[in-house]
Amino acid sequence: MIGRADEQERLAELVTAGSGRALVLRGETGVGKSALLDHAAELALRDGRRVVRATGIEAEAGLPYAGLHQLVHPLLAEASGLDDGSRTVFDAVFGYPDFTGGGKPPSVMALGIAVLALLSQAAASQPLLLVLDDGQWLDDASTDVCGFVGRRLAGSPVTLLAAVRSDVASRFESTGLPELTVSALGEEDAARLLDQHHPALSTQVRRLVLDQAQGNPLALRELPAHFTGGSGDEMPDDLFGQHAVAVPRRLQHLYGTRIAALSPSVRAELLMGALDGTGGRPGQAPSGLYRMRDADEAVAAGLLDIEPGTGEFTFRHPLVRSTIVQMATPNQRRAAHRVLAQVHRDHLERRATHLAAATVDPDDDVADILEAAAESVTRRGGALAAVAWLTRAAELSESHADRSRRLADAAFIAGHAAQLGQAHRLVVADAGAGVAESPAAVIASAYQALYQNGDVRSTWRQVTTTIESLRDAGAPESGEVLTRLVDLLLAMSQYAGDAAMWERTHALLDSLGEVVTAESRLFSGTWSDVVRHGAAGVGQVEQATGRLGDLEPWDVTRLGVAAYHLDVLSQYRPHLQRVVDRELETGAAASGIVMLHLIMLDQIAVGEWDEAERCGRRALEVAVEHGLELFAMQGRGYLAYLAALRGQVARARDLQAEVDSWARPRGLGFLTQLADAGGALAALNTGDYEAAYLYAVGVTAPGTFQPYMYQAPRMLLDLVEAARHTGRAEQARQHALAARDAGLPGISPRLALLTYGALAMTADGEQEAEEMFALAEAHPDAARFPFDLARIRLAHGIRVRHVKGRVAARHLLVQAAEAFDRLGAAAWAQRAHLELRAAGSAPRASILNLASLTWQERRIADLAASGLTNKEIGERMHLSPRTVSSHLYRIFPKLGITTRAALRDALSRSDGDRMAS
């Protein structure tokens, strides 16, 4: 009954009204008409009514009065009180010996009058509900009588409720009885019904079922049993639009008999349309697809519709398309695919789709086309399709070398598509000697161990050994495989965050010489130690923004990670946001999760914290769904850091502890550093500077930036501030000078801002403090990092208040307070407002104010403060007094006041703070 509130209301009114009526429910097969009939029958029984049910049977559609007999038979025992005329009519129709008389069958009117009399007598002591299902199969004579009776029930205690299919022509269409259309469920209701009956479906299977079912409740309940849920490692072919999904027998029967009755030529047209995806979704013109011709016979059979705008044939329901394909023989399908491959000879990916299905024996030409199509589609978010095409290309390869290479490519892409189990199966499918130790097998197993279990050390050793073997063998064909192994090794080294592992990784890359690509060299520098090796990659990372659309998704994310370390991620974000959804749905899902992480990190940096929270939660949900525990923990680490920024200390500490307890035993320094960064920031929120200092020095000692600790430069202000507040002024100064001497300002804009801020905080004299603060303020990218800039302004404002007095400090403190307020950094905002109070400025409530008021709200506030009434304000601004009142209702909380009288003071305080700034 999900999504059927209107229908239930109509049926309840019909059944319990007390005056005889008739209603016909009309809807497509499986839409839920029988469920509504059951619901009505239950209502009637609860209301004390007698219920008589009948069902039309297709096999009896040619038997006169067979349907009427089902309705009348339970009541014939009460026919003894009927007059002789009515008894004679029943005797003639049904031939019961209890009745007298005979002769030819009566007219519809005579039989209808007799039925009305019988119903009236049967309902004399108890109201009666007649329920007729599958009315489209009722014989013509019975349908005519039901129509005659239904039109004459007014005022009687009898109600007639029938259900007929809208996709099957029936005589009920001419009865003139009132109808209620039962439509397919809307998107939300369909999703709710599916989730109620199949809550454990993976996102991909769930989406596929919703797409195929098109709101049909029967399909929503039946289809999921034929798909594999879980991680998505085993998905039906139709995920790529290449074949129809397997149709359960119960659903196939709905359309199978009508399809079987079509002529061979029409079935062939429908088969080609189905295999090419023609008209797969009602309401869409089949652009670029095969156009079915001469298929009016299928329209008459209720299988096709004709689009009004284009005149093209489209399938009435996706399940029609699926049933057509499933009923065709393998030879019929292959023949249709061969024709379609020729039709699409100028379209690489469509041609590849049909050639893959049409070809039986090994064929290198077809395999080459499939491989080219896989490469093309991967760059457009079709990694799942690429895996299927490469696997098929391997099957059609004439040489073992080509087969192995293509299976390795399929396994590599499958790994990035979060189908780690399938990646392993693909390389095992290679029957060559020693496959268990092949580079492709190493890559597949290493990704699986890393992504699912966070196993970085043993897999790092395995990958290192494999690279050394390839290097020593000097195999010329191993270039692409070697690059994949190198990039995997770099990812593992990054997650390990271990100096010794990084040193060995760099040494191994040096031994490979020119075989290592420029991109891998870039990743090696920026991912490992941006302080010592990263600055040289800035230009390369920025130049890459112009060609992101031509790269595979995993290469985009690798460059994005480099951009994150160099703090130029904002240049990548537009591309990531454009492609992330497609990668999560049909592309490289693992890369899609990394894209979400990168988007989140940039949103955190630029102050879009609400958006970052949503993005982080989505990334976590996807990672958990795919069983990628490494990414799930990484996502929790980022959420912990964001919670710490927002002053949600308890949540930050819970997430931090979860990440740390999982990552530290596994030696995942990347995550333990992230946890320490969140811990330090949470401690700073509560004023626990000693704990913050311990977290910070756990990453790097004061006065140095420990090699290969990526969080060390990012925690510059955390260490400096914690050291200053714990009486370690000398260590704070040493650390600020170390940042300057290490050349941090030349590496990235954010590190420049942090360095100048740290130098201003720890300066020995006021001149240096002012100069360093001026450099921070004047940096062209300072505004891109509002939280860092606000921290620096707050610290400098406190210093200025102590040195130059309250008035001089006020504008800095106002800027910091308003920035923290806008960001939602609660603890930092509170600290800034306390400093403002000490500087003699307004209390917190009046500082937020003007920044949060719209132009219209500010104008209304000014007029109200001047003493005008709501009516007078409305006349000036062409608003109603009620609208003015609504605006004031929203203005008061923003200004921290509760009465109209407080408006003038609140506005004047805010204006004073603005002028001071």
Automatic annotation (TrEMBL):
<feature type="domain" description="HTH luxR-type">
    <location>
        <begin position="846"/>
        <end position="911"/>
    </location>
</feature>
<dbReference type="InterPro" id="IPR027417">
    <property type="entry name" value="P-loop_NTPase"/>
</dbReference>
<dbReference type="InterPro" id="IPR041664">
    <property type="entry name" value="AAA_16"/>
</dbReference>
<dbReference type="InterPro" id="IPR016032">
    <property type="entry name" value="Sig_transdc_resp-reg_C-effctor"/>
</dbReference>
<dbReference type="InterPro" id="IPR000792">
    <property type="entry name" value="Tscrpt_reg_LuxR_C"/>
</dbReference>
<keyword id="KW-0067">ATP-binding</keyword>
<keyword id="KW-0547">Nucleotide-binding</keyword>
<dbReference type="Pfam" id="PF00196">
    <property type="entry name" value="GerE"/>
</dbReference>
<dbReference type="Pfam" id="PF13191">
    <property type="entry name" value="AAA_16"/>
</dbReference>
<dbReference type="InterPro" id="IPR036388">
    <property type="entry name" value="WH-like_DNA-bd_sf"/>
</dbReference>
<protein>
    <submittedName>
        <fullName>LuxR family transcriptional regulator</fullName>
    </submittedName>
</protein>
